[in-house]
Amino acid sequence: MIPAAFAYHRPRTVQSALRLLQLHGHDAKILAGGQSLLPMMKLRVATPAHLIDIGRVASLRGIRLRQGVLRIGAMATHQEIEFSPAVRRAAPALVETAAVIGDLQVRNLGTIGGALIHADPVADYPATVLALDAEFTLQGPAGVRTVPAAEFFLGPMTTDAGPDEIMTEVAIPASPLRFGAAYLKMPNPASGFALVGVAAAIGLDQAGRCAHVRVGITGVASAAYRASGAEAALAGQEPTDETLARAAAVAADGVDANSDIHASAEYRTHLAGVLARRALVLARDRAMASGRRRRSASRV
Predict the structure, then answer these.
(1) Which of 59, 116, 276, 298 has its CA 20 to 30 A from that of 169?
(2) Do both 49 and 62 map to the same domain?
(3) SS3 at position 15
(4) Is residue 2 part of a domain?
(5) CA atoms of 202 and 185, how far apart (whole Å)
(6) Contact 52, 60 (CB under 8 A)
């Protein structure tokens, strides 16, 4: 398939890209890695008259860990995230997530900012950034603002980002003491997208109880969401297998689950509970192991 005709722009700064967005308005689209937009253009689902390629905007690249916060440029590719030592230290669950996105070609070109702005309801990153309490920096004509992940995903391919804004950075607090997280998914065998994906994060207090719990779920509903019922069920509790199983059982409560040719609503609901239990157990085990490693290091 051949896309409709368009004008191509390649700015070198965020400010130049924003000026082009303001000039062309709804006729313009931002091109990051192109792994979602270009197929849509070839099918003529999207027909922008102006394509603004931000691939050469140097300020949107880079991954750094500073003062306890992992900062990822919006143009960082999935492969860069997968192999980044800083991400592996501060947010290893994000490494797990990047490693299971699409195929090698997609991971080489696709970007975290593009994936998050696209907000496909079966994408992988949304579940993990929800579980890790990420914040997104958006820049537009009115200035710079920060949006928590919990407030960002509004519906299928719909986010809190304005049409004249560009995502510039993803910020994630580094893992604290006695903290563990994990991402698991059941992939669609053809596309690799998540039929259901669950990210779980657990932080333990000195008594071994859940002081911090986040569960992010993708693929089930029209947008990624936090499983607040599961989180509430674990708050202040000792994370035994039985307690985690009870919390996982309500992971899809109150959610209007998707039903399509790939999976029924009932199957997605069931799978959300299964994967939530497995992800919570893995996060719990990693939190406990993290605490043991740090105590051993302090005695050396």
Answers:
(1) 276
(2) no
(3) helix
(4) no
(5) 18
(6) no
